[in-house]
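Please annotate this fold before class:
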Amino acid sequence: MRLKAFFILLAGLFLATAAAAQSISAPPPVPPLDPENTLLLDLSTGGRVAIQLRPDVAPRHVERIKTLARRGFYNGLTFHRVIDGFMAQGGDPKGDGSGGSDLPDLAAEFNGLPHVRGALSAARTEAPNTANSQFFIMLAPKLSLDGQYTVFGRVVSGMAFVDAIEKGEPPANPTRILQASIAADNRPPPAPGLAVAAPAAPAPSLAAQPAHAAAGPAVPPPPSIRVPDPPAPPRRKQ
């Protein structure tokens, strides 16, 4: 009798553990499309990409990309690292993977959204809480990134234009974001090859700079924001 009760208890624990694991790993339901949470990217290689943003699972990351898009921050920036069959990374004002916006870095918002084809995810350094302005769009699934990078949207139209982004690390002729906008703002696509200018930043005050500022040591560049390389294909046995 005791043995039977033990097995019943063991089975109950197993089922409860399995249910808990499933609830953590299962992606949340997809909400209806909302113009206020739809990012539009007009690319120099042609076409408009629409991305459904997910504030229900990553509100800070969604708010950040909306804020920067409405500032005009992304207009004219390139996709500086694009690996065929993996992902396209952009959003760096320096164009080399080391830049970001003037806003503070974001804490990670890992969630149940997977890194499937078309997923929009936040690029960061090796430290989890260093996402800022850079992002990447998955060209193919890579689920090993789940739980390490914050997915906060997915392409809902124009994926063919994402596939056409110039490949390379960096590309010889990188694809540019002519305009990034939010669908609710109803901005028409710019003329082909013409990036919409970002709002001019105020010039720094010379009076605010200490007289000895130029004589100090050079500031080291920030760590590169780099998504891990995809695994190499297995070698064929001779």
